[in-house]
Design brief:
Elements lengths: L1 H11 L3 H21 L3 E4 H8 L9 E5 L6 H13 L5 E10 L5 E10 L4 E11 L5 E7 L8 E7 L1 H14 L5 H12 L6 H11 L3 H8 L9 H9 L10 H15 L7
Parallel strand pairs: 2-5
Antiparallel strand pairs: 1-2, 3-4, 4-5, 6-7
Helix pairs in contact: 1-2, 2-4, 5-6, 5-7, 5-8, 6-10, 9-10
Amino acid sequence: MIERALKTAEAVGVPPSYIVQEYLQRAVLLVLFDQVGVQGVLQGGSALRLFYESPRFSLDLDLIVEKAIRRMGTRLERLLQHYCQPHGITVRLHRWQRFEGIPPLIRAELRFTIPQLHRYLRLRTDLLVSTPPQAEPHLLTVNWLPGPPATIVPVRKPEGLLADKILALGLRAQLLVRDVFDTWLLLEREIRVSREEIEQELTRYRKTWNQLRTGLKRLPTLLSAPEAHTTALNRLLPPSSHFSPTLFQEMVKRVIQSLAPLCRSA
């Protein structure tokens, strides 16, 4: 598996850790949905990357789950160790922490020690405990595992993914270029901005339209210092998808224009 990942990384022009990380993400999802029995939905950048052909690499996993399963972290670590050991990979559950927010969040951090890379990889998985949104079933294949090679993963629908990204732009403490890119990508694919989906997300987090509007009005600040923002974004993209500072500014303007109706009071 590692040798295949190294060849893929060289061909694509990205760090080998990015490709190995995706192999491990797939393994974690297969174990969670096929063997641990998680009832939930995958969302965020990894959903876009693994199932909607986004060029942007996403290094974490984000899920919305109905409830936490007893001893989930221990079972996840044990099963992954069983599957990864034949490849010389050691798995350790470094952290399993519950945050009593609205809604509650479980954050798992797995560490995979990979001798061929001379380092460990950290894979953070966030499990938001809430009513899962609408999803579509997608086939996930993991050909390098000795266990079941495939399972069905419920993945959030594109309109829901866009609503989640819009909330990230408006409600995160800091604007992140990855959220801008993901929003732009969905808009370019003509995914509709759904006020209903946004309303559901605001209700989930107990936030208001005014809070969202205030946060979205920060977007023009990204038009300054485009070189630094472009460098940060290009770290997550293969060379074939790199942005120039000018193209980055055009992307931000496209997002601002598309979300402008949301910034006006109803």
